[in-house]
Design a protein that fits this description.
Oligomer: single chain
CATH topology of one domain: Trefoil (Acidic Fibroblast Growth Factor, subunit A)
Number of strands: 12
InterPro entries: Immunoregulatory_rcpt-like, Ricin_B-like_lectins
Main location: membrane
Helix content: 10-25%
Mean pLDDT: 74
CATH class of one domain: Mainly Beta
Low-confidence stretches: 176-214, 260-264
Largest sheet: 6 strands, antiparallel
Protein name: Ricin B lectin domain-containing protein
Subcellular location: Membrane
Strand order of the largest sheet: 6-7-3-2-1-12
Keywords: Membrane, Transmembrane, Transmembrane helix
Order of helices and strands: EEEEEEEEEEEEHHH
Length: about 300
């Protein structure tokens, strides 16, 4: 069952076992990490008695009080061994804790008893352990639920508007184990505050997913730095690529040198006749004698000798 808590309203958590008493949370006085939770006489102006119910999904809430600040959440932890709470099985007590040092106990279910009152249990301890008041103003997580214990009954009273943007989102501890038990967050849930001691359901829209699981400022800044670095690396890579490309274009090899003689080939004449191309070799003249010998090629006529037998 989902209760219609207004995320922009402070509520008082009334202890029905002790009328005139209300749940109170302190500041995170222990090194800014944890604070105490107990009950005291109702005081509507006490910051520690002003609680915000922020829906994580349709059945799970995160609670923080004005005194604990936007990073202080209702949670549970092991109690000290020298207190009355240590006598209770489990010795688990409610605390206020910074989200960085808490666990699944920061996720609370608020369920009805059926008589107009409600009980609290958290995801770390399970539904069989309930938030209970003791007789000495202290509180404890108690597994004694049958029969119904009077110290486990609570009602709620709307006090005032929060009006502080720091309470418009929630931070959860840095682990994903909570998803094993928690129901998936709803995408919407606007809850209307009422002045009744027990808020009545009313139609409306539920908070957006970004409200219940928004990125913290540090995470958003880290993403921004990472994206900027990636862009810078890409620009540098492209600049180097184009500079090298221009340099190679300027210093590349010149036109190829060819040997016109070696490349010359015989080509047929247009009329189909072929001519030998002259050779590049030279041949010496045949050797001659050092002196020329003149030869007469003509002699004077001579009378032929007659026949002597006449």
């Amino acid at each position: 069952m989902s209760l219609n808590f207004d995320t922009n309203a402070w509520y008082q958590v009334n202890v029905t076992k002790f009328p005139g008493s209300s749940l109170l949370g302190t500041s995170l006085f222990q090194d800014g990490k944890t604070g105490a939770v107990f009950y005291q006489n109702t005081n509507t102006s006490a910051k520690g008695q002003s609680w915000q119910f922020y829906p994580y999904n349709s059945s799970v809430y995160l609670l923080r009080c004005k005194d604990g600040g936007p990073n202080g959440y209702l949670a549970a932890a092991a109690g000290k061994t020298d207190t009355d709470q240590s006598d209770v099985t489990g010795n688990t007590v409610p605390i206020l804790a910074n989200y960085n040092v808490t666990d699944d106990s920061m996720f609370w279910t608020v369920a009805p008893w059926g008589d107009g009152t409600y009980y609290f249990s958290n995801l770390a301890n399970g539904s069989e352990w309930r938030l209970s008041v003791m007789d000495n103003k202290l509180m404890v997580m108690d597994s004694n639920t049958l029969p119904a214990q009077s110290g486990e009954h609570y009602t709620f009273t709307s006090l005032s508007t929060i009006g502080d943007s720091r309470y418009s989102t929630v931070n959860t501890y840095p682990t994903t184990s909570r998803t094993e038990n928690a129901v998936a967050p709803t995408t919407t849930s606007t809850i209307t505050a009422t002045g009744d001691s027990t808020p009545s359901p009313s139609a409306g829209s539920s908070p957006s997913e970004s409200s219940s699981g928004g990125l913290s400022t540090g995470a958003a800044a880290g993403i921004g730095v990472g994206v900027g670095l990636a862009v810078a690396i890409l620009v540098a890579f492209l600049a180097i690529f184009f500079i090298r490309r221009r340099k190679n274009a300027r210093t590349g090899p010149g036109p190829e040198q060819t040997n016109p003689v070696g490349d010359a080939k015989y080509q047929p004449a247009a009329n189909g006749r072929f001519h030998e191309m002259g050779t590049t070799n030279t041949f010496p003249e045949m050797p001659t004698s050092a002196r020329s010998q003149p030869h007469e090629v003509w002699t004077p006529p001579m009378e032929l000798q007659g026949d002597s037998r006449r």
